[in-house]
């Protein structure tokens, strides 16, 4: 532990009798001093003893250091001597190695010609046996030495190729001539390879393949291997999965058998594509090519997708340097005859299918589609209608049918979505934007023109005239459904068409086409909304007038018994407010966005004007004025449902005006100068005061003047 002087002294004082306050013992400074002096002397003695020991150890250390340094110097000298001996030995070894290499070169120079002469002698011996027509050597008679025999036959065959033609003819006349034996042995090797493959003997297959590598029939050996690999491999219905499993299995084996596994595997894949897959694709497509375009396109898309997926799996294998191009060419060779006219079939099917979907819908409604008409007269009608907002031609009774169907739209968009997916997969990259634009044009024609535009034209013709007595929000339902369809149309445009044309000049063309069709629709929507709203508001106000005229009585605001009025508001007020609330809900359900606020504001202003003019038709007693205030309060509560600040402000002012019907004559001026009435024209205030039954009293006239 580290030495701390204060603690050491404390412990010393504590152990000394009289040095501390233990128990009741008194403190004795002399005794403590004496103990300190004695202890200091002991420490001095101990210090001297330790110092002597340290000096002795230092002397001993210096002595050992000198001895160690001397020993290191001796070792360095010994190391230098050993290094010199090592250099001498290395030079001697290098000299000997040079001599040995020189001697080896001389021996090789003598042995190589001798070895070649021996091999030539053996070949001449074997050649003589062929010339004699009798094969006696063990290498030809022993079937286990087929590898050595193959090497000899290969060399003899090369020699036979160098002989003059006449000699070669004589040579070939022998039934067991070298060329004949060459072919026989080649067939024997291929048969041996086939047998080994059937037995699953990989090592034997590797040996035979190595021998055949130098024969002309090596390619035939590869063909036999590929043929046998496919035996029993395509037993299931899924030829693509079978092909993937087969290639996976062969990929593990081919490297153990052949010296060029990538070439063999590539040849196997080529054989699978050109034989198995091409035959399967042809059977699947030709069956529906002329009879069923829908099934043909589905099969073409499915087969092409599965083929490209198989190609992606095969990319994992070693097929040579440019395997991507190799596999692409194989796929193209299978599908080229189908892809050349794909877009023609696609557009034809899409046109027929879309027309059938629309016709089936109109047939379900028992509707004979009208001819909208084109040309100069139709364009002239459109311009007149846009500028005057007048209906041209007779009104059509649609019986509330919008002729817009979510089911039809979903079906058309689904067909187009599938067409875009097929187009993306089956089109050549250079033709993809052009083909996608053609599909988009079909969608515009049948969805926007044949369905939405037709519904808008029919809707415009079905809007009742402005003097109609029944409020009909028919065209607003058309608008609501058309907006929903536009959102779906725009979503498909962004999700499925944009990725196909985003980096091509067709993008601007598609955007312009979309903009034109939307602008054309918006013109008809705006025109129809204006006519529908005007007609609807007129009908609503007319219905409110009818309710007020039928239900409001003059005695409501001038009761015979002022002290026996039991109702909170009049029956006319209840029915009008109920009717208005229903119409507000209809408008909110039929429109969206700013259109709702615009229509509700116009309805609210007309509603206020109607109530204002209606109230000025009656005279009011004190209790009748209170009832009028209650009615206006209920109208104001109804106006809150509009959620339009201006409408609520108008009814607040009307409510304040009704207070003039009941306020005491002395307080009229004070009420008229209030916050809500101060800015109104004095004639308006006067007109309301005149409605009081006590207006003609001199006191009231005097106060108001």
TrEMBL record:
Exocyst complex component Sec10 N-terminal domain span: 29-137
GO CC aspect terms: exocyst
Example of a GO biological process term: exocytosis
Pfam family, one: Sec10_N
InterPro entries for this protein: Sec10-like, Sec10_HB, Sec10_N
Stretches assigned to the Exocyst complex component Sec10-like alpha-helical bundle domain: 148-704
Keyword Ribonucleoprotein part of the UniProt annotation: no
Alphabetically ordered keywords of this record: Coiled coil, Exocytosis, Transport
Coiled-coil residue windows: 40-78
Entry's family note: Belongs to the SEC10 family.
Name the UniProt record assigns to this protein: Exocyst complex component 5
Native source species: Ibidorhyncha struthersii
Gene: Exoc5
């Amino acid at each position: 532990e580290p030495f701390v002087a204060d603690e050491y002294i404390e412990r010393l004082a504590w152990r000394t009798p009289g040095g501390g306050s233990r128990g009741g013992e008194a403190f004795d400074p002399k005794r403590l001093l004496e103990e300190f002096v004695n202890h200091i002397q002991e420490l001095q003695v101990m210090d001297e003893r330790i110092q002597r020991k340290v000096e002795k150890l230092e002397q001993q250390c210096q002595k050992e250091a000198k001895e160690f340094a001397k020993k290191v110097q001796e070792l360095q000298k010994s190391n230098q001597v050993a290094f010199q001996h090592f250099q001498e030995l290395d030079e001697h070894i290098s000299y000997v190695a040079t001599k040995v290499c020189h001697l080896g070169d001389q021996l090789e120079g003598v042995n190589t010609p001798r070895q070649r002469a021996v091999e030539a002698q053996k070949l001449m011996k074997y050649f003589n046996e062929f010339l004699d027509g009798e094969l006696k050597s063990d290498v030809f008679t022993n079937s286990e030495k087929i590898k050595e025999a193959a090497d000899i036959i290969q060399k003899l065959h090369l020699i036979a190729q160098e002989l003059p033609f006449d000699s070669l003819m004589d040579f070939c006349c022998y039934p067991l001539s070298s060329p004949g034996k060459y072919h026989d042995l080649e067939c024997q090797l291929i048969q041996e390879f086939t047998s080994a493959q059937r037995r699953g003997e990989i090592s034997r297959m590797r040996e035979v393949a190595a021998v055949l590598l130098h024969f002309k029939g090596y390619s035939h050996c590869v063909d036999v291997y590929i043929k046998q690999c496919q035996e029993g491999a395509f037993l299931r219905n899924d030829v693509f999965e079978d092909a993937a499993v087969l290639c996976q299995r062969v990929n593990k084996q081919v490297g153990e058998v052949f010296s060029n596994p990538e070439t063999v595997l590539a040849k196997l894949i080529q054989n699978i594509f050109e034989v198995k897959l091409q035959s399967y694709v042809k059977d699947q497509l030709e069956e529906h090519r002329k009879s069923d375009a829908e099934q043909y396109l589905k099969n073409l898309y499915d087969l092409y997708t599965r083929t490209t997926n198989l190609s992606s799996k095969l990319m994992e294998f070693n097929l040579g340097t440019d395997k991507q191009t190799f596999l692409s060419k194989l796929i193209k060779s299978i599908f080229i005859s189908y892809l050349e006219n794909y877009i023609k079939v696609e557009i034809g099917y899409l046109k027929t299918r879309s027309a059938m979907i629309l016709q089936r819908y109109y047939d379900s409604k028992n509707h004979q589609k009208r001819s909208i008409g084109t040309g100069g007269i139709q364009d002239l009608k459109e311009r007149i209608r846009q500028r005057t907002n007048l209906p041209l031609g007779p009104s059509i009774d649609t019986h509330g049918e919008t002729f817009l169907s979510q089911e039809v739209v979903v079906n058309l968009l689904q067909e187009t979505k599938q067409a875009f997916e097929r187009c993306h997969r089956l089109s050549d990259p250079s033709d993809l934007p052009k083909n996608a634009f053609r599909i988009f044009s079909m969608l515009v024609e049948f969805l926007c023109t044949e369905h939405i535009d037709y519904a808008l034209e029919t809707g415009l013709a079905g809007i009742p005239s402005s003097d109609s007595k029944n409020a009909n929000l028919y065209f607003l339902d058309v608008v609501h459904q058309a907006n929903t369809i536009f959102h779906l149309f725009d979503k498909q445009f962004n999700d499925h068409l944009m990725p196909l044309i985003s980096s091509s000049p067709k993008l601007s063309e598609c955007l312009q086409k979309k903009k034109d069709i939307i602008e054309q629709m918006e013109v008809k929507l705006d025109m129809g909304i204006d006519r529908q709203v005007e007609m609807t508001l007129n009908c609503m106000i007319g219905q409110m007038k009818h309710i007020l005229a039928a239900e409001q009585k003059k005695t409501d605001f001038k009761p015979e018994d002022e002290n026996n009025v039991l109702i909170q508001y009049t029956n006319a007020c209840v029915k009008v407010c109920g009717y208005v609330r229903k119409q507000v809900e209809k408008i909110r359900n039929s429109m969206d966005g700013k259109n709702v606020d615009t229509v509700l504001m116009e309805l609210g202003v007309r509603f206020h004007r109607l109530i204002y003019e209606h109230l000025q038709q009656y005279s009011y007693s004190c209790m009748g004025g209170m009832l009028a205030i209650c009615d206006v309060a209920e109208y104001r509560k109804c106006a809150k449902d509009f959620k339009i600040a201006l409408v609520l402000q108008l009814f607040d002012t009307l409510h304040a005006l009704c207070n003039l019907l009941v306020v005491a004559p002395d307080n009229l001026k004070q009420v008229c100068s209030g916050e809500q009435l101060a800015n109104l024209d004095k004639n308006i205030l006067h007109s309301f005061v005149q409605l009081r039954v006590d207006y003609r009293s001199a006191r009231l006239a005097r106060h108001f003047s």
